[in-house]
Amino acid sequence: MSRVKRGVTSHAKHKKVFKAAKGYFGRRKNTIRTAKQAVEKAGQYAFRDRKRKKRTFRALWIQRLNAAVRPFELNYSRFIDGLSKSGITVDRKVLSDLAINEPAAFQAIVEKAKAALAA
What we know:
Layout lengths: L6 H14 L11 H38 L6 H11 L5 H10 L1 H16 L1
Keywords: Ribonucleoprotein, Ribosomal protein, RNA-binding, rRNA-binding
Function: Binds directly to 23S ribosomal RNA and is necessary for the in vitro assembly process of the 50S ribosomal subunit. It is not involved in the protein synthesizing functions of that subunit.
Family: Belongs to the bacterial ribosomal protein bL20 family.
């Protein structure tokens, strides 16, 4: 049986890891052992934070909505209650965007929510 030289395969694997570790500080970018660990940990953070990003943005939209409805003598929870009672089904992302970019449209929605709360 002939001998198998594995240099080409190892080099290709290492190259892939080093490419992923580009921009890291110190030995993390150019030593295979530490680079491999760093890339694996970065992958774990990336996986976790793809999930966390959704939570973070929802929290941001809620804060923006709370700030946007305060001038109309409402708070966030009363506003959402009014929306559900009036039958308006617009998600928080769109509401937040409306509050920033289309204040007149947002005001109309707030007035409908207030009317539903009063009734």
